[in-house]
Write a structure and sequence with these properties.
By secondary structure, this protein is an alpha/beta fold. The protein contains 6 helices and 5 strands. The two termini are 28 Å apart.
């Protein structure tokens, strides 16, 4: 059975569905949930609006931290053991890195972004995770 389940959140409804599925599985199996949120360093945006990069990156980190803590509080109130990880960079890379570091059994992601031409141009979290994960991946249908 699953001992460690990794799931990401950005506060979206797709992420919430994935987090809820991970929580359900964790309750059934007694697994620990590693809750992850990635945030981008905003170098290009900072330059375009003449703000310090450090300030914009700090704002992005604070937003990701807030999102993580809100989701973690919900899971803890349901009796799920949760660890949080706020990581700079691409969300898919953050999920994969945490899964590797924690020797996760499963990564749970929502299906948003799996359809249409944009997936070929921009890539997306579920696609990248499913191709590079060090463990099994569950893609929760959210569309």
């Amino acid at each position: 059975m699953h001992q460690v389940i990794v799931v990401g959140t950005d506060g979206s409804s797709t992420a919430d569905a994935a987090v809820q599925r991970a929580a359900t599985l964790a309750k059934l199996t007694g697994a620990r949930v590693e809750l992850v949120s990635g945030y981008r360093d905003n170098y290009a945006m900072a330059a375009s609006v003449a703000l310090p990069v450090v300030e914009m990156t700090e704002d992005a980190r604070k937003a990701a931290d807030g999102c993580l803590e809100q989701a973690a509080a919900r899971l803890r109130s349901d009796g799920v053991q949760v660890e949080t990880h706020c990581m700079p960079g691409d969300a898919a890379d953050a999920l994969i890195d945490v899964a590797e570091a924690t020797e996760a059994d499963l990564i749970v992601v929502g299906s948003k972004g799996m359809r249409g031409g944009r997936r070929f141009l921009l890539g997306n979290v579920p696609n990248k995770v499913s191709h590079h994960a060090p463990c099994s991946v569950m893609i929760v249908r959210t569309a």
